[in-house]
């Protein structure tokens, strides 16, 4: 029993420290958001003496956070729907359909995971400008789909490979077309993976700053994360207001993690299935 307790403590102590290191930045941000500018300058790390929500109201109204929030919600929703559609189709084809070149195509999708956006940022911006897609919602949505589609295809292919191919063969013998098998069988069976991948992609798109900054130079089309960065300029340094903006942008992500943590964990583990 003593060895068992010692083993539990050896696991609990590092995990507790890791949890504290994860939670502390959020608590620090919330504490700073409740301070006045004077209180923050005098004591940056001290606890606030009162709950002040004026900074949150100022951050929401000063740079048009409401408009940026709607922009992010629209872009993320459309991007995730397209990613789930194309990713599930590609995953079904690469895992269950037998055609020449499927392995090479899958490896090509995997190669896309190793190409950072910074490498293709300049040529992509030029292509988008030449095609009049810069500073447009369709342009940013296309960039999100192209950037996160390899990840979606990888997870959906790994998940669909765990489904017995006899199910697909039986449906084909019964007269179902490839589209019928995908719509009536693979989509319902892939609902857990689709939910997990959809949540992860939504978090990726919501938290993005660089791609949105390159594709959306106009202030009217900015996303929420770009709006948060505009709260702190070269000649303005109101840290409590900036922390309030960070808190506003983090609340949807925190809610997703709080209520859908099991689905997120399943999505992270989806790529570990056999195949």
TrEMBL record:
Q: Which InterPro entries match?
A: MetI-like (IPR000515), MetI-like_sf (IPR035906)
Keywords carried by this UniProt record: Cell membrane, Membrane, Transmembrane, Transmembrane helix, Transport
Membrane spanning stretches: 9-28, 68-92, 104-125, 137-156, 193-219, 239-260
Q: Which domain of life is it from?
A: Bacteria
| Sequence ranges assigned to domain ABC transmembrane type-1 in this UniProt record | 69-260
Q: Where in the cell is it found?
A: Cell membrane
Signal peptide as annotated in the record: none
User: What is the membrane topology listed in the Swiss-Prot or TrEMBL record?
Assistant: Multi-pass membrane protein
What's this protein's family per the entry? Answer: Belongs to the binding-protein-dependent transport system permease family.
- Its recorded name reads Carbohydrate ABC transporter permease
Q: Which organism is it from?
A: Micromonospora trifolii
């Amino acid at each position: 029993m003593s060895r068992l307790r010692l083993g539990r403590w050896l696991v609990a102590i590092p995990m507790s420290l890791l949890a504290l290191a994860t939670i502390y930045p959020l608590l620090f941000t919330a504490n700073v958001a409740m301070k006045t500018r004077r209180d923050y300058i005098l004591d940056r790390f001290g606890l606030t003496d009162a709950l002040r929500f004026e900074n949150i109201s100022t951050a929401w109204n000063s740079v048009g956070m409401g408009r940026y929030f709607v922009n992010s919600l629209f872009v993320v929703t459309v991007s995730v729907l397209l990613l789930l559609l194309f990713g599930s189709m590609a995953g079904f084809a690469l895992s269950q359909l037998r055609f020449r070149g499927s392995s090479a195509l899958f490896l090509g999708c995997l190669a896309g995971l190793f190409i950072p956006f910074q490498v293709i940022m300049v040529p992509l911006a030029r292509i988008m400008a030449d095609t009049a897609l810069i500073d447009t919602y369709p342009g940013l949505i296309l960039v999100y789909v192209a950037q996160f589609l390899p990840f979606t295809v990888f997870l959906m292919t790994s998940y669909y490979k765990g489904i017995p191919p006899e199910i697909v063969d039986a449906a084909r013998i019964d007269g179902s077309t490839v589209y019928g098998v995908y719509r009536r069988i693979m989509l319902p069976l892939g609902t857990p993976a689709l939910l997990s991948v959809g949540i992860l992609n939504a978090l990726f798109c919501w938290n993005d700053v660089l791609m949105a900054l390159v594709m959306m130079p106009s202030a009217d089309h900015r996303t929420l994360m770009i709006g948060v960065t505009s709260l702190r300029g070269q000649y303005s340094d109101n840290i409590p207001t900036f922390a309030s903006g960070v808190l506003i942008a983090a609340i949807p992500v925190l809610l997703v993690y709080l209520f859908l943590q099991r689905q997120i964990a399943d999505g992270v583990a989806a790529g570990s299935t056999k195949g």
